[in-house]
Amino acid sequence: MPSQNNSSEIVKKIDDFLDYLAVERGSSPLTIRNYRHYLTRLLIWLNTKKENAKLKDINQDIVHDFRLHLTKLGLGRKTQGYHAIALRSFLKWLLKNDIDVMEPTKIDLPKVPDRQVKFLTGEQVDRLLNAPTLSDIQGIRDKAILEVLFSTGLRVSELTSLNRDKIDFNRREFGITGKGGRARVVFLSSRASEYLKKYLDNRKDHFKPLFIRHKGKIDPTTSDEKMRLTPRSVERLIKKYVKKVKLPIDATPHTMRHSYATDLLIAGADIRSVQEMLGHKNISTTQIYTHVTNKQLKDIHETFHGRGK
Length: 309
Description:
14 helices, mainly alpha, 309 residues, hpI Integrase, Chain A, globular
C-alpha cells in the first residue's frame, strides 16, 4: 500500500473495498491484486497534488488530471480504462455504504478498439491436439490438457484448480466454480474423457490435483499444492506445441477458449447456451464471438454461393 504520508482514510476504505470484493463478490485474487494496484496508483498521485487527500477530493477535475498523468506514463487507452473501471467500482461501493463521494457514472470510460479474438481453425486445432508425443507420462498429460481445454473452454485457472476426484467419467462432466464465484457444469467430449482417463490410469501417485508436474524426482511427502500444475506452466506447454507444429498464431490457453466458443457458434449453437458454457456473467462478453462467426459465415457464403458471383 501507499507510504505513511498518504491519506489513512482512503487507504482504509480501499482495504475494506478489496475485502468486499473477496468475500461478497467472490472476485479472483488476480482481480483484487489489479484493483489494489490501480487504486494505489491513484492515491499516490493524488497525494502529490494534495497532502492527506480525502475521498471528497476525488472529483471530475482530479479524474481528468489523473488520466493525463496516465497518458504521460505511456499507458494505453485500454489500461487507462482499467483504472477508470476500478475507480468507478470503488465509488459505487462507497455510495452503497452511505459515504458521500462523486457519482461514479460521471467517470467516462475511454473508448478502445473492438476486442480482437484470436482463434484456431479446425485444421489448426487438430494439429495442436496431435502435437504431444505419448511415449511418457508428461506427453500423455499434455495431450489430456489440450483435449480438455478444447472440449470445455475452461479458463486456465479453472483447469489448474481441478482435483481428480471431481471428474465424473460415467457422465463425462464435472462442476466448476469460475470467475465471480459462478458455478457451472462442464462437459467432456469422448476423446477428452478417453485421454484424461488414460493420463490418470498412468499415474501412480496419491496427489489430489488433476494435473501435476512430472519433471524430476517426485517426493511422495510433497504437498498437493506444490505438485499442482500452475497456469504459467500450462501457458508454456501450449507455446511449446504451437512452436512444434509451426502454427501461425501465438496461441495461449485463452486462444483455446476462443476456439471452443467459435467452434460452437459456427456449428449452430445459440449464444445463450455458449454464454452459459463459458461461464460469462453478461451476454455482451459472449457477443464478441459473433463478430468472428459472422465473418466466417460471410466467407463461406462468398466461397460457395456461386449464383451470386
